[in-house]
Amino acid sequence: MSSQKTALIIGATQPLGVALTKNLQLQNYRIIATTKSTSPNAFHNSSHDLITVEEVCRDSGGHVIHRIDLERDDASERILGGLSGSEFGTSPVSVIDLLIVAEESYHHDALDHLHITEQLKQYQSNALNPLIIISNLVDLSKLSSGSKVLFFSSKYASTSIVDLNCESGDYVDDFGYKMSKSALLMGCKMLSIILKGKGISLAVVYPGTDQISISNHLEKSSIDLIVPRIIGVIEDLSLENTGKFLCPVDLESFPAAERDLIERFNSNFGRKSGVLEIPC
Question: Which pLDDT does position 248 carry in this prediction?
Answer without folding.
Answer: 93
